[in-house]
Amino acid sequence: MSECCPCGLSQPYAACCGRFLSGAAAAPTAEALMRSRYTAYVLGDEAYLLATWHPSTRPARLDLHAEPRPRWLGLKLLGHAQADDTHASVEFIARYKLGGRGFRLHEVSRFLREAGNWYYLDGQIAGD
């Protein structure tokens, strides 16, 4: 994959989120982890999503390949807040189509850093 990364940054996938999904590097910030997790949803990479989900809130499994599958259309980051060295939040809107109909997921996600790695903890759906 040499085109721009699905996360929306104007970088090739391999130089952007691809290095995180491949395991070559760990996401250095909660924002980078959030972008890479969006990319994992686009690509259907369940293993990466589970590995970057905090064990205290991680589901036993995901079923990203079940039909109907959403078609992810784009990601817009609205804000990023670093509370301290181990806590951060990212607000975003992810657009997708399901069954020919367009939707927007507006969420404020919380992230936790443990042993040098960032993990998705949970998210609050924001009202539009």
Condensed summary:
Helix content is 19%, strand content 37%.
Model description:
This protein is an alpha+beta fold. Helix content is 19%, strand content 37%. It contains three helices and four strands; from the N terminus they run αααββββ. It has helices at 18-21, 30-43, 46-51; strands at residues 71-82, 87-98, 101-114, 117-125. A four-stranded antiparallel beta sheet has the order 1-2-3-4. The protein starts with 17 loop residues before the first helix and ends with a strand. The model has no long low-confidence stretch (mean pLDDT 94).
Notable traits:
128 residues; alpha+beta
**Distance N to C terminus:** 34 Å
> How would you classify the helix and strand content by structural class?
alpha+beta
Portion in helices = 10-25%
Q: Please work out how many helical segments DSSP would assign.
A: 3
Specify the overall morphology: globular
- What does the average pLDDT come to? 94
Largest sheet: 4 strands, antiparallel
Radius of gyration: 14 Å
SSE order, as H and E?
HHHEEEE
Low-confidence stretches: none
Strand proportion, as a percent range, falls in 35-45%
| Largest beta sheet: strand ordering | 1-2-3-4
Detail the topology: elements first, then pairings.
Layout: H1 18-21, H2 30-43, H3 46-51, E1 71-82, E2 87-98, E3 101-114, E4 117-125
Antiparallel strand pairs: 1-2, 2-3, 3-4
